[in-house]
Design a protein that fits this description.
heterodimer; A: about 200 residues; mainly alpha; Four Helix Bundle (Hemerythrin (Met), subunit A); B: about 350 residues
């Protein structure tokens, strides 16, 4: 299909460019926005693979929640870019070395025949009509992989509790409000109606 | 090739058939809002332009379009112009999966519900980018408030949707409506009453509407994130906000109030008439009711204090949704709610 290839290459191009921009642009807010663009392009490529659930969840979780918080923090930072660049020339040789090693490793994997090469991954066959990626995922997660799934959930719960526990601290000497008592306020707490007999002004 | 071209043109025509009425609805929604709030406050509302003031929205639109767009000094030009577009796009794109009736739906996809959830969570980007790019303290404060608020209320909104998923057994919006067949008491609002209420509250918070409109908060931070916007750019933000309100109203109708289904289904006398059968008119009527409620809230509730918004979201709504998701699961397992009955 020509159109599918067109969509794939267009989104791949945007994805690679955006990923490169994430680490090259100077402004961290731009970095975060390029990362959002990269997530979107990746989601589009997943859609082409008929993995619509994963694609949309990628957008919900990373773009809708994680990146919003990222932007939240990054926009509040007052970053001075000069000290960040100071060590650039000093670290350059090490960085180049690491980059070369990683590139060579990747190329070895990509060019090797028989184990992990590109020739080992044929173009995926289109799924039969009526196939639902959401249903397939759900059935696997809640039958075959039920235990790992539940364990992952518990691990995340522990992480949530730990994160909250880390931020809990008692600071003495600050004024706080007690919403419960504010909500419980009734009219009797602040207003007292006094019955009085009406009086005539005294005649002078 | 010709087939494909025809398909493309037909799809674009269908998209226009949704978006053009939507834009017109937004225009008259603003008129309706001013009239409704006016009569609630014993005023007349717009009454000068055209008969009964009906041409007021068009006068407003032309005024905004003809005004100059002022770029603040030191604003980030590109993002400043891009922000309204980012705010508008998801509000329109989400309409792709809304089922207007059994046959009238642009994209009848299996992951419709999370698609909607994804797009409603994107609308906050327009606000954040606008606030940051304006290079203004008020705009930035509004953006920060909006970001924190949206992320918080998304959770309770997501859990409310989980309840619908459990009873409906599908992510497809059309099938969710079909699962509610059988008259007004078979719709999901009854078994999921707490989630229904929480969904509407979260919808208010997601669209930054009163009483959760702290992102604008005109008495605190002037006009919040769009304080620096003028002319057409401001109009686009306005359009996005109202399109989002209509979207949330239609979603409430689809998820909790039986979409296009008739409330009198199964009543013998009505049978085959317009009242007894489901059609797009029922969908539009229900959406209109929820749209009216948005205005009603605005006219009757004072604005929340910011810390109390956070408390309500995290400490009240989320625990209730968690409990009711379990109740919904029990109802589904015990067969108390049978779908499509």
């Amino acid at each position: 299909m020509m159109i599918q290839e067109l969509i794939f290459y267009a989104h791949s191009l945007v994805l690679v460019l955006a990923a490169a921009m994430v680490i090259t642009v100077r402004n961290p807010v731009y970095s975060a926005l390029y990362l959002v663009l990269a997530f979107f392009s990746a989601a589009a490529i997943w859609l082409l693979l008929e993995a619509e659930f994963l694609a949309i969840i990628l957008v919900v979780v990373y773009v809708g929640a994680v990146m919003v918080l990222f932007l939240f923090v990054v926009m509040m930072l007052d970053i001075n870019l000069v000290p960040l660049k100071e060590g650039f020339s000093r670290y350059l040789p090490v960085a180049v070395l690491v980059a070369i090693v990683m590139a060579v490793e990747l190329l070895m994997v990509l060019w090797s025949k028989g184990r992990l090469g590109v020739d080992m991954f044929p173009i995926p066959a289109p799924n039969p009509e009526g196939y639902s990626n959401t249903r397939a995922l759900g059935e696997l997660l809640y039958s075959k992989y039920l235990l790992p799934f539940e364990v992952a959930g518990v691990v995340l719960l522990v992480a949530i509790i730990a994160a909250i526990a880390l931020t809990l601290r008692k600071r003495p000497g600050i004024k706080t409000q007690n919403p419960a008592s504010q909500v419980r306020v009734s009219r009797e707490d602040s207003v007292r109606l006094v019955k009085m007999k009406s009086e005539k002004p005294r005649e002078v | 090739m010709l087939d494909m071209l025809f398909y493309l043109l037909w799809t674009i025509a269908k998209i226009l058939m949704i978006t053009v009425p939507l834009i017109i609805t937004v225009a008259f929604y603003t008129y309706f809002e001013r009239k409704v709030i006016g009569s609630m406050q014993i005023r007349v509302g717009p009454s000068r332009v055209g008969p009964l003031g009906l041409l007021q929205p068009f006068a407003d639109v032309f005024k905004l379009l003809l005004k100059e767009i002022i770029l603040p000094a030191n604003a980030n030009r590109f993002l400043f112009v891009l922000a309204p577009v980012i705010a508008l796009a998801p509000a329109f794109a989400a309409w792709a999966v809304i089922p207007f009736s059994d046959l009238l739906v642009l994209a009848d996809i299996d992951a419709g519900l999370i698609y909607v959830l994804a797009l409603t969570s994107l609308s906050v980007y327009g606000v954040i980018i606008a606030g940051w790019a304006s290079n203004s303290k008020y705009a930035f404060l509004g953006a920060m408030r909006s970001a924190a608020q949206t992320v918080s209320y998304e959770i309770s909104m997501g859990f409310a949707l989980v309840g619908v998923l459990i009873l409906g057994g599908t992510l497809n919006l059309r099938e969710i409506v079909l699962a509610q067949q059988g008259g007004i008491f078979d719709w999901f609002w009854l078994p999921l009453l707490p989630l229904f209420v929480i969904y509407m509250i979260s919808g208010l918070a997601e669209t930054n509407r009163a009483p959760f409109d702290v992102a604008e908060g005109e008495s605190e931070i002037v006009a919040g994130f769009h304080v620096e916007y003028s002319g057409a750019a401001f109009a686009v933000f306005f359009l996005a906000e109202y399109a989002n309100m209509i979207l949330i109203s239609s979603l409430t109708a689809v998820l909790f109030a039986g979409g296009w289904l008739s409330p009198f289904e199964g009543v013998p006398v009505l049978g085959e008439t317009l009242l007894g059968e489901g059609s797009i008119f029922w969908f539009l009527a229900k959406t209109a009711v929820f749209m009216f409620m948005f205005l009603w809230y605005r006219a009757t509730f004072p604005r929340y204090r910011y810390d109390q918004i956070m408390r309500l979201g995290w400490k009240v709504l989320i625990p209730i949704t968690l409990v009711w998701v379990m109740v919904a699961a029990l109802m589904a397992v015990l067969g108390l709610v049978v779908k499509g009955s």
